[in-house]
Amino acid sequence: MERFVLMNAGPTQPRPANQHMRRNPPIAGEEEAIEKARNGDARAFETLYAMHKRRVYSLCLRMLGNVAEAEDLTQEAFLQLYRKIGTFRGDSAFSTWLHRLAVNVVLMHLRRKGLPQVSLEETLEPSQDDGPRKDIGARDLTLSGSIDRVTLERAIENLPPGYRLVFVLHDVEGYEHNEIAEMLDCSIGNSKSQLHKARMKLRDLLHTGQRKEQIA
Amino acid sequence: MSVVRAMDKTMTCSEFQDTIPDLFEAHADLNAQEHIKACENCAALVRDLEYIASQAKLLLPMHDPSPAVWNNIQQALRHTPGEPPAPLGRK
To answer: Could you report the per-residue pLDDT of A149-177, keeping only the tens digit for each?
Structure first.
């Protein structure tokens, strides 16, 4: 099996998963800009930056939860794009390829920082503290229909980093567990477990926010 | 724990909650589970988890990087014209 080794930041050519394609429709003028940028046209590269900066930055920001780091890594992702655009073969949507490159840049950064939640499988194991509450006694408030985007974004920011990575990659970005397991160098079961715990933690955070609002 | 086991109406909440990740992954109809029909707490939990997952899929990129990011990229490209630029730190 091909490993998604973080030392090799070049994106693989991912399979065109349905969700990626749904989220990454072709952009008018993109193909021409890619072709020109491959030939060193600076203006075309600027066009590609303008087309994709928001998505790449948002991805970095959600994965990292830190504006300064997200900007640094957005910069790094586009510099890597500049170096690697000649290797884009068009097997997948350009944006899918670029986003995978950006995910790689973020993960490599986290590995360099030595954050244990992405470097060691055992640290991705479930934590008792953040695990689901079993046999809940009192009936909780229900969330359905009550969360706005800003509230959800804020709750995601407050997830522990390991949970946040898996949640963003799976539920927001649409990667499959096998892809995430490859990226994070962990088992598929671990990815599934982390995702469930991330959703449970989010539920707790969102309920807590609702209770605070009610008290206020 | 198997998905089939989740159909068992004698399950405790704890046992049912252990099956939730597999049920989600199998795209099973969680509301059809026997335990859910009898347990309002687990039904609320499932509703919330489904809601969180569905709302996450609707999140769009909303934030732009500051203009400094493009300035830094341009500067990096200018330093080594015609050659792949070296990564830069934050300016």
So the answer is: 889 999 999 999 889 999 999 999 999 99
Nearest by Cα to A126 from A82, A180, A191, A64: A191
Q: Closest partner residue to B25 among A57, A156, A192, by Cβ?
A: A192
Chain B positions touching chain A (beta carbons under 8 Å): 12-14, 17, 20-21, 24-25, 40-41, 44-45, 47-49, 51-53, 55-66, 68-70, 72-73, 76-77, 82, 84-85, 87-90
Q: Total structural domains in chain B?
A: 2
* Structure tokens, A183: 């990226």
Instruction: Say whether both B42 and B65 belong to one domain.
Output: no
Q: Which domains does chain A have, with CATH numbers?
A: 7-115 (1.10.1740.10), 144-216 (1.10.10.10)
- Whether the CB of A78 is below 8 Å from some CB of chain B: the reply is yes
Per-residue pLDDT tens digits for A99-143 = 999 999 999 999 888 765 544 343 444 444 444 444 444 445 577
Instruction: Please list the ranges in chain B whose pLDDT falls under 50.
Output: 1-4, 6, 84-91
ipTM: 0.77
Element (H, E) at A21: helix A18-23
Same domain, B46 and B26: yes
Q: Residue B84's domain spans which residues?
A: 61-91
If DSSP states are collapsed to H, E and C, what string results for A47-102?
Answer: HHHHHHHHHHHHHHHHHHCCHHHHHHHHHHHHHHHHHHHHHCCCCCCHHHHHHHHH
Give this prediction's pTM. 0.77
- Residues on chain B touching A152 (C-beta within 8 angstroms): 52, 55-56, 59
